[in-house]
Amino acid sequence: MSTGVIIVLIVIVVGVVAAAAALALRARGATGGSGLKRRFGPEYDRTVARHDGDAKAAERELGERVQEHGSLHEQPLEPAAREQYQARWSAAQELFVDSPREAMSDVDQLLGEVAGARGFPDVQEYEKQFDALSVHHADHVHGYRRVHRVVTTRTNGTPESQAGTEEMREAMLEARALFDDLMSDDNRNGSGHGRSGRHAFGAFNKQALKGS
């Protein structure tokens, strides 16, 4: 084998190794501490708190979420389905005035169904669905958690079961942000961040819920 061929082979091998190293570093950055903080935002802090301040344990959990759900691609909604979901949200908003807990239950079910229609895990697998949503809609997913907790713990004496109207209203406001994200065709497929402060389908404000 000539010296020239050997040199070419060495260059190729070095290039392949360098490319593999770059890809590994990129993947590590996406699931490393700083990468996870950027991707999950406030959800990162909440996860650390749930692990009693153990950042490494929280990062392991969040990293597993990214590995399992990071490649998920959101599916578009059919126009008819979009209109139906919007109508159901409006109905829940009106119901909140007279029956806030029933409205919360309707919103919890609605969010699960819309997420499922967008390609996230089925509504019957809440934890798995929530984890996937947190990867792609980290900024707004906490509203879904708050609503779901009120709905599922309303009879067991926990703080969530004693939630007052104001707390439920705030949970609904947060949930609206996630609903708007899911209703939008402007999905990010893995960016982990929604549109901060911009709701595509109108405001769900305190005035709309006044009188409850």
Itemize the secondary structure elements and their pairings:
Layout: H1 3-31, H2 33-40, H3 42-50, H4 55-69, H5 79-98, H6 100-117, H7 126-136, H8 141-152, H9 165-183
Helix pairs in contact: 1-2, 2-3, 3-4, 4-7, 5-6, 6-8, 6-9, 8-9
Cα shape = elongated
What share of residues are in beta strands? under 5%
What is the rounded Rg?
22 Å
What is the tally of helical segments?
9
Residue stretches low in confidence (pLDDT < 50, at least 5 long) are 20-25, 27-31, 188-207
Largest sheet: none
Report the count of strand segments.
Answer: 0
H/E series: HHHHHHHHH
User: Could you give the distance between the termini?
Assistant: 85 Å
Helices and strands: which structural class? mainly alpha
Q: Helix share of residues?
A: 55-70%
Mean pLDDT: 80
